Amino acid sequence: MQKAYTTALLLSCVSFDHVLGFGTINEPAIIGQHCEHERITRAAFACPPDKEISDGRCFEELSLHQLSGRSDVYVGQGSNGAVGAPDMLDPVPEGPEAHCDNADFLDAQLFDLGVEYPVTRQQATKQLQICINHMRGRIEEGIDAADKIVDGGARIIAPEVDISTLDCRFSFPALQMHVFTRAKCSAIEGFGRALHGIQDFYAHSNWADDAEPPFGPNNPPGLKRIDSPVFLDLRGENNISEQVPHNLSTGCFGGLFTDGPVGKAGHPLEPGSIDCTGRITHHTLNKDNGLIDQVTGNVSTPGPNTPRSDFPGNFQRAVSAAIKDSRRQWRHFREAIRRTYGTERGNIMICALVRDKPANDCYGRRVAILRDVMKTANRIAEMQIPIHKWLLEELADKPHDEGPGEGVTEQNSTKSRGSSDDLYRLHPDDLDIDCDTNTSLDIGVAMSELVHHSTPLPNNKTAVVALTCASNSDLAEQIAHVWHAGDQGIRMHFGILPKKDQILYGPKPRHQTALTGKVREEDLITAVLRTGGTYSILHNREAIPRFIDHVISRGLTQYDNARDTAILLPVGLSISDYVTPESEPRRFSFDASYTNNAVIAVAPMIPKLALHVTVRHVRKNTVLSEQYIGLGGNSTFVAELDINDVPRTDAWFELEVAHAKGGGLVGSGLFEVSVETESVDTGAENNRVHRSEKDEHDEL
Ligand SMILES: *[C@@H]1O[C@H](CO)[C@@H](O)[C@H](O)[C@H]1NC(C)=O
Ligand SMILES: *[C@@H]1O[C@H](CO)[C@@H](O)[C@H](O)[C@H]1NC(C)=O
Ligand SMILES: *[C@@H]1O[C@H](CO)[C@@H](O)[C@H](O)[C@H]1NC(C)=O
Ligand SMILES: *[C@@H]1O[C@H](CO)[C@@H](O)[C@H](O)[C@H]1NC(C)=O
Ligand SMILES: *[C@@H]1O[C@H](CO)[C@@H](O)[C@H](O)[C@H]1NC(C)=O
Ligand SMILES: *[C@@H]1O[C@H](CO)[C@@H](O)[C@H](O)[C@H]1NC(C)=O
Ligand SMILES: *[C@@H]1O[C@H](CO)[C@@H](O)[C@H](O)[C@H]1NC(C)=O
């Protein structure tokens, strides 16, 4: 063991055994010398060795240090990182609520204990709720702090993200006002402190455990679960009591002097020591210690001398579950940032959190704008970051070149202009798109301009945005180009406009579009989706700005958003996407508001595909509808604002589409999602949605 010592406030993970004697630490999770939180966090978030550049899911090296801590440095350096912060002596570690302790329960009747268990299920659940509320609060702190990473125009505020010379220092709990620290550090701190509790939950509970009878307070049953509990979805604001399994227990932690195989009364000399008499102890359940491979997450030498880590496989189960849930939490955190600040600013915030040199690396995009118009040539636009307004103006033929490489001095280290508050309102007539003329998109030319531009830029920072008419039969001939773009890392986004008076809305038989035959349109869609871009049918021209919303939400370029994140589902679009058995489900988020309900329709686009569709109310943390749609079926959902949502005036829904298994169905394929709104004061004639001929219709 290294003798690492820095300051009284910044102890590295490896130094922790030296402070054990202080006796004020009421959380021995990492005292066991192996930096478990650090290694779990590294296993969850390190970028793969062959890909050191983050796509938003992994953290680059220096940024990861801030989150995970670093014990692999020489004596006198090192830190416990944000994830270790709740164990730090600043001046005392965080209490049981930060580690999900003391939510112990055993059903005395079920297990024939003969005596009442000192804690009821309700009391235990209440304790767990305190832990969850605490973590929700930490997440909220992180999200609040992220606001300062970029300015109103989505430009990175360089000093707020600079970790090149000084590691983050995490603040005293009492001073967590995020005024003194760099915004990047505070955002990571909020997330990391929550993550600590998430990881501890698996080490301190029987969620993932295996166990053998006879069961009693010193050997509670194991739930042997491999999923991540729904009550740990920290985006929720719900009371978890209905979601907690009856047999779930964490351990009662009486204090350092009292924790042991048998629950004891509190120790009079230890501040905060509690009475664990007759209860399941932290000692009994914990799987806090063991060696974790920080790349694979594989474990060895668990324990020793705690009953649950001595049970074969339990330490691995806890660590694997913690790694898996850590990744889910990061996805949720990203989704919450995007929802809170919009995807335009949110994507840059996320980029700034995961990248080591965000003030350089998050900038620089090149976009080819293609339109079905005779008059103007296709354009290549340079913009430092994807800005909604500029993309729209480009479509309306108002050029907005920022040029490459601006602003590296301190005064303007935030690149050039950024987005502006005065939102450009696009009038549909500004776009001289005439779907009755006979033109074609020249994707090939646009691509070669993108790639062979005078200033080099990686292809994964380039994209093509094409707005085109359904009538264009040449489109199908572009498949080869699109396929080639995918190979090169250029992202293609297709927005298909209806002809005048043509209604292209909702899941419909595919011959609606005048492409030459079903197969070819599907081929084109597949080719587009393969680039990571979107293939969207616009219900009308007013949907053009929302199409751009969707493009930015999905990620203008490969650089801009990771595939696992929920994508904004704006009104007025029918969006094609695909699932495979290997891929994570596709996720979409949408809102219902005071004045409008959201009407969502989902349909497989190929005959044998079956989909597992789930609609979730995120804040209530409940599944509103779960359906299997197969064999060419489709279904619609209406999502509306509930009385509980009213303080916020909107409601956050999440649609998850996964493949369904078995029954001679293929596991992968294309599907289409569309959203319309319907006014809340529904007189039949007010009803903006025509949804007459829908089969299943779920009122949510
Ligand atoms: C983008 O491309 C560059 C250069 O080809 C590569 O090094 C980098 O890993 C890519 N980034 C992403 C996020 O794929
Ligand atoms: C949650 O609901 C349960 C059961 O209805 C109730 O006993 C408990 O007090 C509630 N918890 C909170 C924090 O409101
Ligand atoms: C609790 O655990 C016992 C023993 O494993 C099991 O028989 C019982 O069904 C479980 N109860 C619930 C509600 O899961
Ligand atoms: C990690 O564990 C898994 C499952 O036991 C195993 O397949 C894999 O080979 C292990 N990896 C290493 C590097 O030991
Ligand atoms: C950035 O700052 C430098 C020096 O302060 C100035 O010369 C330059 O014009 C600025 N660039 C922009 C785009 O504002
Ligand atoms: C469209 O172009 C094709 C070939 O370029 C031509 O044969 C056809 O008449 C044109 N249609 C219209 C409506 O201009
Ligand atoms: C969706 O349902 C409607 C109403 O039942 C039907 O007319 C339509 O053909 C269905 N679409 C698909 C793709 O099955």
Explain how this protein is built.
The chain is of the alpha/beta class and 700 residues long. It folds into 3 domains: 4-236 and 249-336, no CATH class; 363-561, no CATH class; 562-700, Jelly Rolls (Sandwich). 25% of the residues lie in helices and 15% in strands. Strand 5 (462-469), helix 12 (479-488) and strand 6 form a beta-alpha-beta unit. Helix 1 (36-45) packs across helix 8, helix 4 (121-146) packs antiparallel against helix 5 (183-204) and helix 5 (183-204) runs antiparallel to helix 8. One 2-acetamido-2-deoxy-beta-D-glucopyranose binds next to helix 4.
Strand arrangement, largest sheet? 4-3-5-6-7-9-16-11-14-17
Q: What is the residue-averaged pLDDT? A: 80
Q: Which ligands accompany this protein?
A: 2-acetamido-2-deoxy-beta-D-glucopyranose
What is the terminal-to-terminal distance?
Answer: 57 Å
Features of this protein?
700 residues; alpha/beta; Jelly Rolls; disordered N terminus; disordered C terminus; binds 2-acetamido-2-deoxy-beta-D-glucopyranose
